[in-house]
Design goal:
- This protein is mainly beta.
- The chain has one domain: Jelly Rolls (Sandwich), CATH 2.60.120.10.
- The chain contains 3 helices and 13 strands.
- The strands form 3 sheets. Strands 1-2-10-7-12-5 form a 6-stranded antiparallel beta sheet, with no helix packed on it. It has a 5-stranded antiparallel beta sheet with strand order 9-8-11-6-13, with no helix packed on it. It has a two-stranded antiparallel sheet with strand order 3-4.
């Protein structure tokens, strides 16, 4: 595994170890020791996946403290434009967003620490995204930022969104509160 720093502190693109032989492929997506050696001491409490059609946007999601969590995400089928937004007021990159292409082709993972919002646009039908999170789901802490309110160009006219994702507060409305 190779950890590649991004423009947002604590967010890493991970080039996963791929083993190939006549049977196919085996991909290692997590190793506690390797993560610790890269400054990330984490255990995951939940793992789940989503299946999305082309032009679906899911996001921008996070959990509020004290139930906030770090995530390790990757795609096992299809491809996504994965987006991370820094919500940490004391961060040098507060309000900055980055994107990473994750796909079954490149087999990359993305590590996202606490205090960041996460979302993605599915680039293909039946894209499968896996999420590993460091805290359990908490309905009272589950939150989000409106997908098109923080200056990121998703390069899409008519995305497919859930009712919930359409009704999130804008980035500016959210930060009138003293949360992070």
């Amino acid at each position: 595994m190779e950890f590649i720093k991004t423009d947002i502190e604590g967010v890493f693109i991970i080039e996963n170890k791929i083993f190939k032989d006549e049977r196919g492929q085996f991909i290692k997506t997590f190793n506690s020791e390797i993560f610790k050696n890269n400054g990330i001491d984490i255990s995951f409490l939940e793992s789940y996946y989503s299946i999305s059609n082309k032009d679906v946007i899911r996001g921008m999601h996070f959990q509020l403290p004290p139930e906030d969590h770090s995530k390790l995400v990757y795609v096992i089928k299809g491809s996504v434009l994965d987006v991370v937004l820094d919500l940490r007021r004391n961060s040098k990159t507060f309000g900055k967003s980055i994107f990473v292409n994750l796909s079954e082709e490149n087999k990359r993972s993305l590590y996202i620490p606490k205090g960041l919002a996460h979302g993605f646009k599915s680039l293909e039908d039946n894209t499968v995204m896996v999420y590993n999170v460091s805290t359990g789901y908490d309905n009272k802490s589950d939150y989000g930022i409106l997908w098109n309110s923080f200056g990121f160009d998703w390069k899409i006219e008519n995305p497919i969104l859930s009712k919930r994702d359409k009704e999130f507060e804008t980035f500016n409305e959210f930060f009138k509160k003293e949360i992070f």
